[in-house]
């Protein structure tokens, strides 16, 4: 399998099949990156396309200083920041668009979304880059312009905070399931006594 960097260098030299391979490799992950951070599948698709357009436009200036994936996600993060500024500018005062939820069980998605919203912006972004985008510590450090050890410590803190935020929700869920089981047992017992 040809490396991403080699494909990008081939594309810079004029190879369209090389770009098609890069597009096939990263279209899905980039779409997921935007979809998890924005409301609206269509806007996520648009920004995915804009990211690849930016890669095409900047291909002549591409240098193999970092992994292609880091280069691609830095473009995506810049587009995301611009999109968020635009949303903030265009939204009515005091109203912020809610974060989209994942396709998990509704309660779990709600709790995860609420817990993620409680994290600091930089810690949430580091956690999402690591867990959802599967970027390495070094790649995250380069994207966020932070030392690797800072990424590690913020990732650790964000995981601990997320765990702390989710534990009460898990207890409520277990308690609700136990209440439902108890209520079901009471109904069954009452039905048996009625016979």
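^ structure tokens above, recovered residues below v
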């Amino acid at each position: 399998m040809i490396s991403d960097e080699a494909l990008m260098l081939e594309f810079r030299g004029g190879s369209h099949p090389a770009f098609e391979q890069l597009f096939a490799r990263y279209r899905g992950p980039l779409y997921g990156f935007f979809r998890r951070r924005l409301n609206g599948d269509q806007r996520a698709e648009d920004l995915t396309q804009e990211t690849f357009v930016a890669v095409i436009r900047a291909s002549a200036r591409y240098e193999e200083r970092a992994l292609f994936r880091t280069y691609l996600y830095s473009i995506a993060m810049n587009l995301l920041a611009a999109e968020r500024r635009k949303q903030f500018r265009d939204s009515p005062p005091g109203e912020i668009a809610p974060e989209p939820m994942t396709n998990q069980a509704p309660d779990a998605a709600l709790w995860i979304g609420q817990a993620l919203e409680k994290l600091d912006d930089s810690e949430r972004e580091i956690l999402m880059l690591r867990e959802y985008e599967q970027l390495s510590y070094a790649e995250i450090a380069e994207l966020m312009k932070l030392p690797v050890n800072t990424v590690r410590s913020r990732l650790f803190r964000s995981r601990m905070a997320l765990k702390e935020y989710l534990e009460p929700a898990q207890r409520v869920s277990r308690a609700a399931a136990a209440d439902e089981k108890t209520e079901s047992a009471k109904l069954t017992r009452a039905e048996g006594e009625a016979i």
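Residues 85 and 122 are 16 Å apart (CA to CA).
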